[in-house]
Amino acid sequence: MRWRGQRQSENVEDRRGSGGGIFRFPFPGRGGMRVPSSGGGGGKGGGIGLLGILIILGLVLFFGFDPGSLMQGSGPTGGSGSGFPDIRLPQQPRTTNLPAPGTQGQITRPQSSSEDDLKSFVSVVLATTEDVWNNVFNQLGGRYREPRLVLFDGSVRSACGTGMSAMGPFYCPADEKVYIDLEFYRELKNRFRAPGDFAQAYVIAHEVGHHVQKVLGIADKVEAAKRRMGRRGGNALQVRMELQADCFAGVWAHQMQSDKGLIEPGDIDEALQAASAIGDDRIQRQTQGYVVPDSFTHGSSEQRVRWFRRGFQSGQLQACDTFNTDQL
Length: 328
Description:
Region (Disordered): 1-31, 73-115
Strand order of the largest sheet: 1-2-6-5
Low-confidence stretches: 21-57, 59-82, 95-112
Number of helices: 10
Main location: membrane
Keywords: Membrane, Transmembrane, Transmembrane helix
Strand content: 5-15%
Membrane topology: Single-pass membrane protein
Transmembrane segments: 47-65
């Protein structure tokens, strides 16, 4: 990704070094999945252990942490519910066609992974999302509320509760902020085997996609619908939320290419590789040896790749209507 020399967002809060307090998951109005503490039961016992749980959390939440889905616990006890909320995306005027891949010259990728470099990189990526979504909302005759991005280390307090680095990046709809510990990018490369600066950018674009859902009113409708559903229905609805955020990330990538020319050869492959690596089916197969589709909350590898690609190829908001299709 050709990011050096580009505008940096002013909507970045650096809370690194400030500490986040004790680890807890209150998340007002929602259930809670409790993460075992390191005390009490010692370092041994049944199950995969604390480290394993944290690794799985990092994988499951990678590219798609929604506090509502993680904290829903056993979910509402109402009917199984399959009726999705009436969600319609606003009509967006057509934009320019996507240039053919590989039409731009190869640009040497930055090699530095210093904290300052990463902070600058994240600020540039956030700025590109601001440009893209301000433009889209202007075309729709609306106004885009820009989210803030919070850098932290270890743990952080948000309006959704206290988060930990092991959770991965997440979006809190209560304060409309994206949270990320930059150490995650090293984990992304070394442990999750998803290297590349555009894979890193995709992390932010996906979380900002959840913010777009909040601004459009989609997130509130989904949360209201999930309260009327059982676990299976809530999971199915959450999958559609996550796939739409993937698609919105694809729309962002399209505009990055067509309007800004910041995408380099190989960037989209990095994003697709990362999306495939964190599909629910692949994670379940790696962690438990078998797949349970009814428990999916983010979508399969194939689905995540498909919806990002759909947004990227079309560049249109309407292409991301995951709530009114039978073919995910």
